[in-house]
Amino acid sequence: MRQRIWKRLKHDKNLLIGGLLVGLIIISAGISIASDFWEFGLPYPPNTMGRDRMQAPTVEHWFGTDQFGRDTFSRIVKGSWNSIQVGVISVAIGLLFGVMVGMIAGYFGGWIDEVLMRISDVVYGFPAILMAILITSILKPGIQNSMIAIGIATVPVFSRLTRASFLALKERDFVTSARALGRSQTGIILKHILPNSLSPILIQASTSFAIAILAEAALSYLGLGTQPPNASWGLMLKEAQSLINRTIWPAIFPGIAIAIAVMGFNLLGDGLRDVLDPRTSR
User: Per CATH, the architecture of 76-280 is what?
Assistant: First the structure.
């Protein structure tokens, strides 16, 4: 079984390309973190203004500069850490509460399932971006509230997916055997059903990571996410919008960064589905 999975890992193009793109984003985020503690990694401080404004890419400024003379490459690298941070925290929130709700609803069923799923349907009825905009507007603009808002918006996706897996697995023979042996309900849920539901949950987590990065960029673009002067890909696009008639360079590289991150995590999710889902085996 392990040899078959490893063989498919090596030959799955989506997984390889997605892994390379995601690895590039993670390395960029690592450089950003290192630059906060040691004086290396970034060619210029990301928030430091300079005299060379709205420059095209040069040897000194690889991605050019913005309207304040800040180095675009340094801000792109710094923004990668914000995107990874938002993705990890928001997906963790969605996983924790969504899986918990899905486990309870799918295993116990009845009126508990009905109540939890109707609440989930209400939340799911709002688009994720709209829900995040609503929550950040009520709370306060900022990256912390963006994480909470995006995480809440992804809870119904994980709850519905987990519920469907539990409904399909709770009547299987191995669960019936566990009940006959006197295992507790908690033990059956955590040791028998949940481990067999992890594959679709992991695939959804990778896809939700891409959605979280895109949502954070949208919130920052609207002024509800990362606040100036901190670097964020969406905020950089917003600042570059007013300069588009004078120079296109400040808008190109943040857009490419968002595209790489979203494409990488989507391809990674597709590759994980191909490897972990036995129905895709040839």
Answer: Orthogonal Bundle (1.10)
